[in-house]
Amino acid sequence: MAGSTKDPLHLDEQVCYALAVASRSVIALYRPLLDPMGITHPQYLVMLALWESDGRSVGELAAALHLEPATLSPLLKRLEALGLLARRRRETDERIVEITLTDKGRDLRDDAVTIPSKIVERLGLPVERLTDLRDVLHEVIRAAV
Questions:
Q1: How would DSSP label each residue in 91-136?
Q2: Which of 19, 101, 131, 140 is the Cys-Cys partner for 105 at CB 3.0 to 4.6 Å?
Q3: Per-residue pLDDT tens for 26-59?
Q4: Could you give the strand order of the β-sheet that contains 85-90, starting from the edge strand earlier in sequence?
Q5: Chain mean pLDDT for the chain
Q6: DSSP label of 88
Q7: Cβ neighbours around 104 below 10 Å, total
Q8: Residue 120 lies in a domain
């Protein structure tokens, strides 16, 4: 219709809808890459944070991942059971649980290093567009937090 405006409640007009579907779709691309490593996408994010900076407290790790410590704890327990990390109380302050990678956890990085390029390839979008999208999403995260 000439002169009509878009319905603000139309599903395709919702940022939350586009983010949810895009998120699920992109995360699904990771599954075949992570399955051989024996980890899930949320566990992969924990490992990325630890590969970036090993020896973080649970609180520091939760903040880096924008997760509540209670949400993070089951992920850490499973990764510890897989032998990828260790949880220890900090000697200087026993209230703080510190997370460190094991040798197996550090070695897993070698298997993971090709994942970003494989995801870019599977998406089939120019790296510049994906970089711009990532930057916009970081702006959205900052605005929403």
A1: TTEEEEEEEEE-HHHHHHHHHHTTHHHHHHHHHT--HHHHHHHHHH
A2: 101
A3: 999 999 999 999 999 999 999 999 999 999 999 9
A4: 56-57, 93-101, 85-90
A5: 94
A6: E
A7: 11
A8: yes
Whether the CB-CB separation of 112 and 72 falls below 8 Å is answered with no
| pLDDT for the residue numbered 94 | 86
Tokens of 127: 């790296």
- Please determine, for residue 60, whether its predicted confidence score (pLDDT) is greater than 90: yes
Structure-token pair, residue 22? 């895009």
* Domain tally, the chain: 1
Residue of 99, 103, 94 lying closest to 75 (CA atoms):
99
44 falls within a domain: yes
Q: For residue 3, is it within any domain?
A: no
DSSP states of 32-68 as a string? HHHGGGT--HHHHHHHHHHHHSSSEEHHHHHHHHT--
- Look at residue 115 and tell me if it is in a domain: yes
Structure confidence by residue, pLDDT tens digits, 68-101: 999 999 999 999 999 999 999 988 888 999 999 9
